[in-house]
Design brief:
about 475 residues, alpha/beta, Aldehyde Dehydrogenase, Chain A, domain 1, Aldehyde Dehydrogenase, Chain A, domain 2, 2 domains, seven-stranded mixed sheet, six-stranded mixed sheet, about 25% strand
Length: about 475
Amino acid sequence: METQVVTRQMLVGGKWMSNERTFEVFDSHNNEVIAHVPSATEEEMLKAIEEAERTVNQRKILPVHERIRILTKVSEYMEAHHETFAVTIAREGSKTITEARSEVTRATETIRISAEEARRMKGETINFDQNPGSENRVGYFKRFPVGIVGAITPFNDPLNLVAHKIGPAIAAGNAIILKPASATPLSALKLAEAFVEAGLPGGYLSVITGSGKEIGDTLVTHPAIKMISFTGGANAGEAITKKVGTKKVSMELGSNSPVIVLQDADLPKAVHACCSGAFSAAGQNCIGVQRIYVERSVYAEFLDGITEASMALNVGDKMNERTDVGPMINEKEAVRVAEWVNQAVEQGAKIETGGVREGAYYSPTVLTNVSPDSTIAKEEVFGPVVIVEPIDDLEQAIEKANAVNYGLHAGIFTKDLNKAFQAIEKIDVGGIMINDSSDYRIDEMPFGGTKGSGIGREGIKYSMDSMTEQKVVCFNIDE
């Protein structure tokens, strides 16, 4: 059946706009073109910023009840169009249709929680009379929106990560300009449709598609943009921080997540969780399992288990409901992963299973005997590869877990509460999962990392905190 190619518009200041310049969106399964999308110019980005600035300056802050109403209608729209969203995610991205459906469910919940948190965003009273001489002063602080948020999102969760930017921004009363990944802009544009249908006033949302090299600097450096919220690679994040000046910044920059499996662990549970955590979304997951440290007495049993489980995964067409692992986002990324694996093998690593590339597909791969100096041991592979290594004890595992410049999530499997708390205290990460892999998150929790994994925390309430400014109000009351 011939693929139907669609032409999409981008949302500029609440209005749909075309452009003579377009770029192609591909289905990574067969590299077929599925859409033509506008390639925005600097002029169009400036127009979006001007519309947002006009909205912020001329309108009163959108009332909380209006934010709740709009976000609730968006979540209802997403529920009503659940399968359309899922097909969009699967076609333009790497996820299987089953994984895509789960993402739509999560993104709908992200928007629904945003509506709830809009109701709960409050200030606090301040006891000014704690200072001598301030007995007649009373007051409080109140949260105000920062104004305009600039957001940049990656390809791996093309709907839910977009929802994590737009939902909290609108809930906090801001305007937002979103630049989605060029590989996966269709899900973001589909979500923008939901906000238009829900009646969000023009100027509060723009979704600008195109090359980050052409329009990215304008977004991050324009003085009207008061905050940058970025999810993506460490190199891009570092480059942005050098350009933004004194703007507020929130960044999630990926990881190289460790999981520790001790001898008292439930091994079947650990194998299942680590296999899923390593290979879901073809390994293109910032909290995916990349390094597994297994206590030596159970190492062979665990390795046999995860190797067997990995070999049993079905790799193939994303739209087939029986598929477990689809392609990577494009062939270039699959080639990169293959190069990293080959480098590790040249340095002494052994491929227990996998290590095969066909186009954009890379088979689920388990590596052992990996040199700590290899790229795949130190950096974020962002592909379907996991390293399994024996350790003598928990102390050694913690040392190895902390030996990279990332600290997003970690996991540990143990029945020993004392050892669990030792890991909690000593592993330098933003989140640690006990008797689960690193690949666990709910959308309401604070999410972010230490070291090279980013700045600040997402999770709707915590994003809203960063997207607002506290203003102190103090009354000096005459007696």
